[in-house]
Amino acid sequence: xxxxxxxxxxxxxxxxxxxxxxxxxxxxxxxxxxxxxxxxxxxxxxxxxxxxxxxxxxxxxxxxxxxxxxxxxxxxxxxxxxxxxxxxxxxxxxxxxxxxxxxxxxxxxxxxxxxxxxxxxxxxxxxxxxxxxxxxxxxxxxxxxxxxxxxxxxxxxxxxxxxxxxxxxxxxxxxxxxxxxxxxxxxxxxxxxxxxxxxxxxxxxxxxxxxxxxxxxxxxxxxxxxxxxxxxxxxxxxxxxxxxxxxxxxxxxxxxxxxxxx
Length: 262
Known about the structure:
By secondary structure, the protein is an alpha/beta fold. 37% of the residues lie in helices and 26% in strands. α1 (13-23) packs across α8, α4 packs parallel to α5 and α6 runs parallel beside α7.
């Protein structure tokens, strides 16, 4: 029987891409496309499907909820998923500590798969950055640069934050600096800088730079379309369906099928 999926934020850039790709699968289908009331009232449709503003009743007819709405709605959506007893796949970034705590609380009752980036290639980039940071140590400076379209609301991206955190952990600590301006002095040992660029319609680019004396290593990932992210979401839906409660990431999803996981 096909997995019935509710896509929250179905009218957005990522949500609409997820709707289209889920509908293209043979083992799952979109049972509900959820959006804010104002979007629903405008008469908008996604992939020929009418939208609904009511998540709770929609989940009674679904097996898995996928959330690509907005940061302000994530905690409420997680509570609704818990009440319905449905697994939750969430890719909303720019979350407050309160919202993230709400997601983690939900994971005590339902399976929650959270990722700032569902791309398989980005999962590989994270592993490569971790390995490089461990091998090179603090003798190499580390910087993360991310580029996204002008409409992205949060900066730096969740993926850039994750990459910086992974590099720090691999080097047994350090600090993160988001952007630089003015007379900042020499770069302290162990500092990982993050720079965010917003321009045009760039889907997403991430670059990790390790700079040593007389040499530099660069690891990069460029998303050419959101289909790369949606493909990872489809994997996460299959992973979450029928799973016991817990907190999971893309590393867990890919490890379960033999990819670049933990």
